[in-house]
Design brief:
By secondary structure, the chain is of the alpha+beta class. It is built from 9 helices and 10 strands. The radius of gyration is 18 Å and the shape is globular.
């Protein structure tokens, strides 16, 4: 079992995949952090101060537009890292990274991570590969948001959330789901009602319970299968 310097268990897939010598380079610099709901890790265009390796919970990557609207274009769980631009020597990114489902993780200062990458080829490869996979996910979600019906998109999104938290209970409000899907609350309420009447989910105040995952997969658009194929290489289901 791997732990950080405080003795807490490491559950992040990337950190667990590293050879011992590379993890030993990282370990003294990994700071345990609680990651509450709506915690912002970095803003678009601002300097990224830390890379975050999640043990639990889920981060949304969100595009903001000038009229105040937003839409989610990617998510990160224990399979990945928040701050992928650091993997290729960039200090800024185009998205807001915000905790959607609370959890924990470890973080490392951006400059320290960049220095360690020079001596850690497996870590460099893992982060570069994850950045590529994340780019593919962003592309697929963009197509999904443009081409598919809201109930299909909601089903796909709930499945992606469950893949990362390993629980049938998802602490999600309708307001937040609407924001992430780039639509209005009434539209999300209607879509959630369709899935609930079909017996796929139970939508109560602040929580969505997955009742029938297999049927929910059937209700999702083809994008979930494409994204799940990418996820197979990242240690997810």
């Amino acid at each position: 079992m791997r732990t950080d310097v405080s003795g807490r268990q490491i559950k992040n897939v990337i950190l667990l995949s590293l050879p011992d010598d590379e993890f030993s380079l990282l370990r003294p610099h990994l700071e345990f952090v609680e990651l509450p709901h709506h915690r912002i890790m970095h803003e678009p265009g601002e300097k990224i101060e830390h890379g975050y390796f999640l043990n639990e919970g889920m981060t949304s990557l969100v595009v903001l537009v000038s009229d105040g609207r937003s839409v989610e274009v990617g998510i990160v769980g224990r399979e990945g890292v928040v701050g992928t631009p650091l993997a290729v020597g960039l200090q800024r990114g185009p998205y807001r990274a915000i905790m959607q489902i609370p959890g924990t993780g470890v973080r490392i200062k951006a400059g320290v991570l960049e220095d360690i990458l020079l001596a850690a080829p497996t870590l460099q490869m893992a982060l570069s590969r994850y950045a590529l996979m994340q780019g593919l996910q962003v592309t697929q979600i963009a197509a999904c948001n443009r081409l598919h019906e809201i109930e299909q998109r909601l089903a796909r999104w709930l499945l992606m959330c469950q893949d990362r938290v390993d629980s049938q209970f998802l602490p999600l409000t309708q307001d937040f789901m609407a924001q992430m899907l780039g639509t209005g609350r009434p539209t999300v309420s209607l879509a959630a009602g369709i899935l609930q009447r079909a017996g796929l989910i139970q939508n109560s105040r602040g929580t969505v319970k997955i009742l029938n995952r297999k049927s929910l997969e059937g209700a999702a658009c083809e994008c979930y299968g494409v994204i799940q194929h990418f996820n197979g290489g990242l240690g997810l289901k």
